[in-house]
Amino acid sequence: MIEDIRALARELLEKGAVECVIGYEVGPTGRVRPAFVYEPGEVERLIFDGRCDQNLVTYLTRRNKPRKKGEEVPTTAVVVKPCDARSLRVLLNEHQVQRDKVYIIGVACPGMQNADGTPELRCTRCDQRVPLLYDALCGEPPEVPTVRDAYEDVQQIEALPLEERLAYWLGELDRCIRCYACRQACPTCFCSVCEAERDDSLWVGIADRIPEKAFFHIIRAFHQAGRCTECNACEAVCPMGIPLSLINRKIAKDVAQMMGGYRAGESDEPTPLVTMLTGEEAIDEIH
Amino acid sequence: MKFIEIRALHEWLDRLAQEMTLIAPTAVGPQEKAPGSRNPAAQGQQVFYRQVEGAAQIAWDFTRTALSAREHFMPKTETLFTIETGPDGKAVLHETKLEQPRVFFGIRPCDARGLRVLDAVMLGQEPADVYYAQRRENTTLVGLACPQMWEDCFCNSVGGAPDAADDVDILLIQVEGGFAVQVVTEKGERLATGMGLQEVEGLELPQPKLNEQFALPTQQQWLASFNDVYWQRVGDRCLSCRICSYVCPTCRCFDVRDETVVTPQGERIVRRVRAWDSCQGVNYRVQAGGANPRANLEQRLRNRFYCKYYYVPIDYAADGCVGCGRCVTACPVNIDIREVLQDLARREPA
Q: Nearest Cβ partner of A115 from B36, B276, B282?
């Protein structure tokens, strides 16, 4: 598969179809990380295997803006797994990325692995092996059984008495340091100024105390309702090891129950929970 | 060489915890998480410097703590003062009360060295920051030498050492059956009187295993690289989160705001809050008039490296980075300060 990705990347860069290919590489200390390849001669840096679990779609919103006033938006190619493709579909639905400015290198996904070689939990409950949208597909769809997500992790928390549930979350959120890595890694958290970071503290103060931290995470979760594709990026980057995806998965589960099985990023309809007026489609924010 | 047996050390720590605030490395969080996770923070309990009630709560075999010692000298959040309505209806200002004496046990040499930068900024010029000064004065640092350099550590490349005693009041080095004790300062002397130290002849100190040393960029190389496209390329994968600056022992940016709050008794009061801030945040350099000279992500990322290796050494004559390696381990997209330093150091001087 990697030879397919490299050949395609080389071709796209050589003919100038894209400015940059976003994929994965192995850094000097052996860690897998996002790679930005601008030159056809550098495509050998690209790799793809079970360690490539980051969601690269998160980089597209910032690349979809002109760098200088009047400059044209460059076209970017990006390697997407099935889960990442759902994030991209949300961004397309919400007019955050122009379809003709992104070239989607879809990969048939064998599932991602933990550092110890075991399958990542989220991949054991994934029912997609091929991205729902792509311009080119690399790799053969693997014969891995697909499973419908039963949300067992969410049910375990739901089963706790209210006081225990509260104690659990307060204990977890107590460690939050408001580094905003969850928000920054999230493809569908794209506001240019976050409610938690406003200079006027209109919604949340600057303190790193439980009320402020809980409020930030609750607002973030609600803003993700019907939009979170459960890619796990938030949890994967949390330096305090807080199980953040549980919050978003709880809401995704509720949305699916209430909205006739709606799953974010599976159709080109925007989430039923968002109302947008035509003039506001691109959510071009002014603060 | 002075020496203390493990049991005697534990007993001393238990006594200390009764008498004053004892801060020490301790494991925090749920035990069973995801041991195989790619996110090191999700693998199990993390160790933090926290107040403990005795030796039993101390994590003795930790590598480095998830957050540096900074949080105990410049807390993530502190109330500088409150303004309340007095009985006669006039505003009354309450300053935050003095901190009690405390012992910071188990601080790593790199974390202690990081306090030099905070000292230079918070105490080096009049007026000194009274809140920081109080905490510094009231705290005795008992360092715990690293038996080896851990993964991602590079203290030896930036002038430190895993067993350096330069910035602590007392340093403990683990040896057979206990710890060799170096009493470094007068403050340490006063604390050590209660430790019951033994004098042992011919105690051999272990040599900590070091990581490979590398050369740092020169000031000319830093100057010549400022406008380089290199920063755009590193910035390409930066998420612009604040992990690197919040785990750092020498980052010290803060924000101050006044908040109106309602007390549990229903009174409206004003509190002036100081909290950590970061050059990686989008509004870091926004000026009052709205201009932003660091509007782009790569400019803010670049600032972090220049701050450590160019601005702080020039402005405060202190090393801005102690090589603790926390930012390397914690960065979710593998922006590795060692790689950046070596990339720049390889460049031809302009």
A: B36
